Amino acid sequence: VVEMGQAEHAVITTCAYCGVGCGFKVEMKGQEVVRMVPWKDGKANRGHSCVKGRFAWGYATHKDRMLKPMIRKHISEPWREVSWDEAIQYAASEIRRIQAKHGRDAVGGITSSRCTNEETYLVQKLVRAAFGTNNVDTCARVCHSPTGYGLKTTIGESAGTQTFDSVMHTDVVILMGANPSAAHPVFASRLKRRLREGARLIVIDPRRIELVKTAHINAAYHLPVRPGANTALLTAMAHVIATEGLIDEAFVAERCETPAFEQWRDFVSLQENSPEAMEAETGVPAADLRGAARLYATGGNGSIYYGLGVTEHSQGSTTVMAIANLAMATGNIGKEGTGVNPLRGQNNVQGSCDMGSFPHELPGYRHISDPVVRGEFERDWGVTLQAEPGLRLPNMFDAAVSGSFKGLYCQGEDIVQSDPNTQHVAAALTAMECVIVQDIFLNETAKYAHVFLPGSSFLEKDGTFINAERRISRVRKVMEPMGGLADWEATCALSNALGYPMHYSHPSEIMDEIARLTPTFAGVSFRRIEELGGSVQWPCNDAAPEGTPIMHVGEFVRGKGRFMITKYVPSDERSTRKFPLLLTTGRILSQYNVGAQTRRTPNVVWHDEDMLEIHPHDAEDRGIRAGDMVAVQSRAGETVLRADVTDRVQPGVVYTTFHFPESGANVVTTDSTDWATDCPEYKVTAIQARRVTEP
Ligand code: SF4
């Protein structure tokens, strides 16, 4: 780190890692970054940061950056560097050739949750208007798509309901399937501060995460749920609340649909849903589960924060609805200090979903089949849109393997490393005739690409990100795009080459278009964001010109809240004689997602491999000692990981991270998915483990 005083000027921007969305002051000397300092006026972080964000310019200027467009006719051939114009023309001609031969819907696109809102908006517009298909999806498919389904169904909006600040008014926090100390560190710090003031914490997680220690200090609960049994556990908590007279009857009567509530109450009150009846499934002592349910219902303001340990299950959408049911039943939503909050993993997952990156939804979560909504976009964009939803990401892979899907434009997403069942993803990409990868590094997916377009980092572009509290924050350019074009400019160039004109002189014009077409963003512009101090929480429109810190005040977005039946269906991935252990996955503090950025940021590389956490009993049974290499085999595949023998995991459960491509965690995860959204069941994989070598 360079000493203070060397900087000549500074630019305020937003961290490009996790969904907290911390504001940073990037201090510059000429075109060189001197250092990044957490911005004291950043409303998401208030002057704090974690170690990842502070050193984020390291990857942005890394020697591995790919700065030249490249093409090749076949993936067995070497890359050939070409001009931007040649690469774009080649990509456009391949898209059109494929469509002429295999049909309009033989191509599609994937937006990035690391790119700006303006860029993701343009990619979905490119796919719908220039490709002429709704085959567009986003990496949220494999993380928070069940949040979209579950929250939209129950309360009407696919987003967290409160601000990060609001946790300071919470008395009881349920933290489920999330490990903010590692994945959302600045939020974890704020939560700990509130716990030190006396708030109580209920952790629902198969692992003894770092915050469990804090939970015990505050005499609350750690419910070590068996992977795959989340719905059973929450339904059992609802049973306690319903049968012990803990429902907030006045709230429910005023705010929720009565018939659905009564059906729900009858369902959860069944003895088969009691904590005692569910104990074998959940693995949680019934007394603890009853105590936690009573605490949440009676302990004052209650907030629920959850992560991918909720969504990435075959019942991910059901579990999200079970969370919303609990909040509605206890009146813990729609006021300060209460709410339901998905902790978003990547910096702009919320934004990529808001911007219409799903095959069935236009920007603002409006269904593509609605002729009125479609008409608004058709008039503005000057095209006729398809009324039928397109293919989801896993359906694109399946269609590619079966031969009907042939071309993909993938911006800022490494689907080979991040999606489950790597072998299937690789087979799908190999079967395609044209894969266009746009990224800052030659990632794992680029091994299967025919066109490579250099991506631009967050330091090289203007735009906005949206964090987990719906906060739209400005991203500001501190240096020119190292590859010559910002991502949004490359998308425009491709669209123009395809014959669909896209001309914007600045990303602010793209945001103006988004605002024109999206009611929840109607009051948003770059100027308005500046006037409001650098960020604003949507909805921001005539009804809420200053933005909306707390949602669902007085009335749910859908009108009346809707309770949903959450019948527990066991996962297909269960312990068997052949695969007796359940593998679950997560993150470590020093790495971010697939590690493409943090592995190239020397200041934060504290670990250089993914480890397999295994309980001492399970390790002893298999002759495994700390540091041994262990073969991990599932029905999908096999990989090898180094053992970390620890009681952070319970017997029968093993755990690893997915930050390093060499470890191949997703070689073993299967193609089991959420019933409603096809979100992969990363968090439950039945495996066997055997020692293969000493360290
Ligand atoms: Fe903040 Fe997350 Fe960036 Fe850390 S990684 S500085 S918590 S936005």
Automatic annotation (TrEMBL):
The keyword Oxidoreductase applies. Belongs to the complex I 75 kDa subunit family. In the C-terminal section; belongs to the prokaryotic molybdopterin-containing oxidoreductase family. GO terms for molecular function: 2 iron, 2 sulfur cluster binding; 4 iron, 4 sulfur cluster binding; formate dehydrogenase (NAD+) activity; metal ion binding; molybdopterin cofactor binding; NADH dehydrogenase activity. Residues 8-64 form the 4Fe-4S Mo/W bis-MGD-type domain. One of its GO terms (biological process) is formate metabolic process. GO terms for cellular component: membrane; oxidoreductase complex. Keywords: 2Fe-2S, 4Fe-4S, Iron, Iron-sulfur, Metal-binding, Oxidoreductase, Repeat. This is Formate dehydrogenase subunit alpha.
